[in-house]
Amino acid sequence: MTVTEVRAGGGVRTPSPVRPRRRGIGWKQRLEILALSGPAILMFASFVIFPVVMAAYYGFYRWKGYGPPTDFVGLDNYVTILKDPTFHDALWHNGQVVVLSLVLQGPIAVGLALLLNQKMRGQSLIRVLIFVPYVISEVIVGTAWALLLQTNGAVNDVLRSIGLDGLAQDWLANPSLAIWTLMLILTWKYIGFAVILFLAGMQNIPEELSEAAAVDGATFWQTQWRITLPLLGPTIRIWAFLSIIGALQLFDLVYIIWGQYVASTAGTSTMATYMVVEGRNAANYGYGNAVAVVLFTISMIIALVYQRFVLRRDSEGQA
Q1: Residues near 223 by Cβ (< 8 Å), separated by ≥ 6?
Q2: pLDDT band at 14 (very low <50, low <70, confident <90, very high)
Q3: How many CB atoms lie within 10 A of CB 158?
Q4: What whole-number distance in Å separates Cα of residue 240 and Cα of residue 224?
Q5: Which residues pair with 17 in a beta bridge?
Q6: Cα gap 96→110, rounded to integer Å
Q7: pLDDT digit string, tens, across residues 87-139
Q8: Could you give the CA distance from residue 203 to residue 232 in angstroms, rounded to a whole number?
Q9: What does the pLDDT look like over 145-162, one tens digit per residue?
């Protein structure tokens, strides 16, 4: 429906559409929305919002983990965290893991996904074998690698047996090697998830584009560089976001392989291991909760910045 208006000078204004009034949501629709979203909201509030609020509350106290907190210390726990060199080292190690995960795992996963996206014999078997480490429990992975890489472990024994004694190293305790050992284990463990994610993204790329490029004389790698990778961009950015958040919260493998003491001296401690060592193991749960709040805040800020400057264009492009 349009309305034509006559101007005072005799001219006619261009017809403008008259927007129909939006009907309000009835009580039946409101009840249906509440019934469907209510349980999810309740679970999220109970297991995410409430624990964060309680951690922030306990972070203002010197608390032993039992009974009501009474020794209020204000911001002392947070000041201690920000001044502690051990926490600075843990934060630096987390930063290294974030960068190295993106630099190492990303290109390897993309390359493997490009190759596995082609028709070849045993394609399904190779996909399964690459994905297997991801579904193995972190406890099993950590224990196995700790046994393999210890000084008298299988890795050094194999090197010595083939005459490469000079390559036998203390893979876990040497500060110059430990971070690379950690990255090797993380890459082996999580590369399968990235490959499967990229393969799923490639399934949404129309084959007609590659066929048209081949007709125009483009080589295989030119097609991947000019067509596949740009269209795979949203999937890569989602994987990078998940990798960053996972690297910031890294705990289990480090704690299982290096333990609470070796991790700090070997240069593999993280903010999460620092939280457990200085909080729970030291019977200082108030301080541990304060570390948890700091870790949550850092992760939230990075997530919001990444969403604002990286993922926003993907969501706007779909709108």
Answers
A1: 210, 213, 214
A2: low
A3: 13
A4: 20
A5: 2
A6: 21
A7: 999 999 999 999 999 999 999 999 899 888 887 777 788 888 888 999 999 99
A8: 10
A9: 999 988 888 888 898 888
Residue 173: what pLDDT? 86
Residues 221 and 210: their CA atoms lie apart, in Å, by 11
3 state SS of 113:
helix
Residue of 252, 274, 250, 251 whose CA lies nearest to 261: 274
- 16: phi then psi, degrees, rounded to nearest 5: -120, 140
Token pair belonging to 50: 């409430």
Give the 3-state secondary structure of residue 18: coil
Q: Taking the CA atoms of the chain, what radius of gyration do you get in angstroms?
A: 27
CB 290 within 8 A of CB 81: yes
Please give the Cα distance from 272 to 278 (Å, whole number).
10
Strands 16-17 and 2-3: antiparallel
- The Cα–Cα gap between 151 and 244 comes to 31
- Residue 135 and residue 141 in contact, taking contact as beta carbons nearer than 8 Å: no
**d(C-alpha 240, C-alpha 183), whole Å:** 16
* Residues 6+ away with beta carbon under 8 Å from 106: 194, 236, 239, 240, 243
Contact indicator for 210, 60 with CB cutoff of 8 Å: no
State phi, psi for 57 to the nearest 5 degrees. -65, -50
